[in-house]
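Reproducibility note. Readers wishing to regenerate the assembly model reported in the main text can use the exact inputs given here. Chain order matters: entities are listed in the order in which they were concatenated for prediction.
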Amino acid sequence: MSFEIDIARTLGTKRLALRFQAGAGLTALWGPSGAGKTSTLNMIAGLLRPDIGRIAVGGQTLFESAKGIDLPPERRRAGYIFQDGRLFPHRRVRANLLYGQRLADVADRWMTLEEAVDFLGIAHLLDRWPATLSGGEAQRVAIGRALLSGPRFLLMDEPLSSLDAPRRAEIMTVIERIRDEIKLPILYVSHDRTEIDRLATTTIRLD
Amino acid sequence: MLSLEEWEVVRLSLKVSGVAVVATLPIAFALAWLLARGRFPGKLLLDGIVHLPLVLPPVVTGWLLLIAFGAQGPAGRFLADWFGIGFVFHWTGAALAAAVMALPLMVRAIRLSIEAVDRRLEGAARTLGATPLHAFLTVTLPLSLPGVLAGIVLGFARSIGEFGATITFASNIPGETRTLPIAIYTALQIPGAEAQVTRLALISVALSLGALLISEGLARRIRREGGGHVL
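Running the prediction on these inputs yields the following structure tokens for the assembly.
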């Protein structure tokens, strides 16, 4: 199983409880806004701690309250692609791309800067500042930054929501290629049915 | 032109203010961090104490320093016994007074810029493999640099202008604690020293203006290199 998730956490006045297993390919978490989709990704990435439960990805336990396992985010090897790109504004594109690669063990790196740049078509952006990028360009760089950190899986939080239609189609093609060519397990959050119909191998509905 | 004695005043002022700002910076950053990010009981009280020198009459601050750091004061005795540092009638006393007066301004500027750093960027750094310390050094610290810079300039300007606490705590000793404002005040007491007052006042203006221009220049450079980050 790629993702084995069984978690619960109180968020404000609501209680989020979620349990699912998903195999290879792209698993879509689909539900209305406020259903706890982003919180779920944050818990899998280690940015938010579940009250109880277990999180395992690709057979490796990242969190298990009963056994006191709680890996810090930097040891979970999650490639997290945020809704807003979240590039480091004080670093050029090249330095953004290399940020995670330099921190990864050499054995864990499976893509070079050249390969990532080639794969995403961002060679012309390397010396730019993030503030000068369009939404689609920034999202490509964010994907590259995540891939270069040597992740075991990807978490995508509505990566298309801030893009216009042509840009959405472009990035969707990139995501399909990550799914089919790189074969990285992806957990993909969206409230948009059409995105999910096109991309998802498995769909989990969150209410 | 300046007399030897006046050069001495300028040199002393720069030394006192420079040491005050450099020594205060780590403390100011730590306090700013605590106040921006910390959650602990007594935070409001700490905030109040840090800001006290900003609202107290400087004479009172100087008197409090005298009680704490004077030859008989608890902190003064401790520092003298263990590190051999004395403050009374010594330039270090002027630096301490300047540091205490500069602290709230420095903490304020740095705190604002730490609060302005998007914490989600630190989260992004963590998922990319950064330990909390590495995320701090590569994301939080550089992004709060404009505030640190503003704090340094404000603190330096405040130190150069410090008068009340210094003269109360460290007195008016030529070559030791007679900094620019105190030298101007002293010259004003002497009939016929108007030319000296004018010269020293012009130096004050030049130093303060210079500090502001340097900070503006650095801020522009940071803005340019930081891709849209402003003070």
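We highlight two features of this model. The interface with chain A takes residues 120-121, 123-131, 134, 138-139, 142-143, 225-229 of chain B (CB under 8 Å). The first helix of chain B runs from residue 4 to 37.
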